[in-house]
Design a protein that fits this description.
4-stranded mixed beta sheet, alpha/beta, homodimer, 362 residues, Spore Coat Polysaccharide Biosynthesis Protein SpsA, Chain A, 15 strands, 5-stranded mixed barrel
């Protein structure tokens, strides 16, 4: 049976979730939807597929303390700190080095820590097929999400749909990737949606530990060189300083751009399991349970003719009168009031706070 | 020269100003508009007309402490506590008893503590005419506000406009009152506005101290009987207990309904001096200074396409994105979000809190 390990990428900042997400308490460490924090739910979602002691969580020093408390079943040595965020390629490379120490021939499942999946059984079915295919083929696999709207906030993956007998895995719903596409404008997104062969890029990957390390060597040789120095330092007193030196040199690059788009051995499997990246407060509202007035409420809210709104205020009484289509997020030290449909602009608030050096709010 | 004293009625609760106004910090004790609390501004408005030591402030035990600090120029013995609120007639009667001890032949100006007046010179002119007329005529005078819209939130006063030589004060702009009208519906309010002889009832009165006490004796004999017991106890150790007994018996009634409407010696003088009773957050927004986006802001508010809104949050950072026509009042323990034009419904929030016995928010 194939040995499987997992890498949960949990170092993000999540500026679109201000004022709840902060440097010390980013989205993945919050209870955003229902019970459990997002990273806890990501770990839980792997139950029956990957054991916690075969799971790595990549984070940073600021978040490490909170993370250790949230996932006590993951061994402390599996919580990996990056000295600085350098996008997904170094993050995955670093985790692969550590995973190789446990099992060089394992298949590695890479997942963002801050996504939501509602149909767990279907997720497990798709993941099992992907793991089996990755083990058999030595290919790079990604999960592409069945698109339901012309979303401009996601990257897309175009699959090759007419391969026939040239693709031995087509019977499992595994297709070769034709191309990756950046976040499109609305017109392009509508064309993608109509074409039938474009899927949303979920940022979830499945591949052999050795396979991805060889691919990084091929596609990103400089980064690989730095990574080899880190590898040699694992378990020594020089680990931390070597890691910092490496990350000081390494160029930030995504695994999509750095490896996936350059490799000719990339497959995609379609997932249709109630996925969302919860990329904004609007998306959280969409995914939330609502009362009969269409409101999603956390905290004590006195509602007078209030409709279709998201109100989060666990610590303070709210009275809402005649409110419609509003997102309200009330934390201990800040209050967001945002017209529904405009929560992408929350990022501008973070930008403003950075510009004004209002660091206590970041 | 006529001796003048003043009575500032400051015992109200101001439930329409929730969450800022509470039992311990009602509207009149707050800085609602510009500098100074409303009661401080009411006192200041009398400068040059009535001295602080001739001014009485009627309040209650809960608010007394805060009030003493806010109006240090008023002698402590002039701050009168009512054991319980019984509307304006007992409040005015009690103040008149105390005023009579200072000067029985004085003219007494009675003012609510929570109104705003922007044209001070015109207010002084009107008040001087009213004081002179009250002193000469022994009549009851009230100030009627020149109406500028068909307001349904105010009572109205109809003046007799065709008296001619039967009214010796008509040359001063003082008219006999024909009738008092309760808060009208919109249709009636529009008729009032069109008629030209209806004015807004400002709740401001001018009369001789002895005159109003005799009128109370005539119109409200039971109340007067109780008041005489209180009068006899002033300056004795029995004052407090006598007052409490009296207020336990006295029926709550307004001076308008209890005296003004029953008397045939009532005059009104028109005031046009930028008056507002600041009866709601909508009214506060209207009276506030605005920025170029039409927003009235207190506190640090990051605005992204936010218009025509009132945002009060002195203690907590707010980010507003795409917000329009909203009233936001953020205090230490509660948050109000109200569609503009609906702030009269804030009273329903207070009613709800009472019903649910959420007393800490009252």
């Amino acid at each position: 049976m194939t040995k499987v390990c997992a890498v949960i990428m949990a170092g993000g900042v999540g500026t679109r979730f201000w004022p709840r997400s902060r440097e010390k308490s980013p989205k993945q460490l919050l209870e955003v939807l229902g019970k459990g924090t997002m990273v806890q739910n990501t770990l839980k979602r792997l139950e029956g597929i990957v054991a916690p002691h075969d799971t790595f969580v990549v984070t940073n020093r600021i978040q490490r303390g909170a993370l250790l408390k949230q996932v006590p079943s993951v061994p402390e040595e599996n919580i990996l700190d990056e000295p600085v965020g350098r996008n997904t390629a170094p993050c995955i490379g670093l985790a692969a080095l550590h995973a190789r120490r446990i099992a060089p021939d394992a298949v590695m499942v890479v997942l963002p820590a801050d996504h939501v999946i509602t149909d767990l059984a279907e997720f497990h079915r798709v993941l099992a097929v992907a793991i089996e295919t990755a083990a058999e083929s030595g290919s790079l696999l990604t999960i592409g999400i069945h698109p339901t709207r012309p979303e401009t906030g996601y990257g897309y993956i175009q699959s090759l749909t007419d391969e026939g007998a040239h693709n031995p895995y087509v019977g499992r719903g595994v297709m070769r990737v034709k191309a990756f596409a950046e976040k499109p404008n609305l017109q392009t997104a509508e064309r993608f949606l109509g074409s039938g062969d474009f899927l949303w890029n979920s940022g979830t990957f499945i591949w052999g530990v050795d396979v991805i390390l060889r691919q990084i060597e091929t596609c990103l040789p400089e980064m690989h060189g730095e990574m080899m120095k880190v590898d040699a330092a694992i378990g020594t007193q020089q680990y931390q300083s070597t890691l910092e030196k490496a990350y000081g040199v390494i160029r930030g690059i995504s695994i999509d751009y750095g490896v996936m788009e350059k490799s000719d051995n990339v497959f995609v499997i379609k997932g249709d399991f109630g996925w969302s990246d919860l990329g904004s407060w609007d998306e959280v509202y969409l995914q939330s349970g609502k009362d009969s007035s269409g409101n999603s409420i956390t905290g004590t809210v006195i509602q007078i003719e209030t409709r279709d709104s998201y109100i989060y205020s666990p610590g303070k009484l709210v009275a809402a009168i005649g409110v419609e289509d509003l997102i309200v997020v009330n934390t201990d030290d800040a209050l967001l009031i945002c017209r529904k449909g405009r929560s992408q602009e929350v990022k501008e608030v973070s930008d403003y706070l950075k510009r004004k050096q209002m660091n206590e709010y970041l």
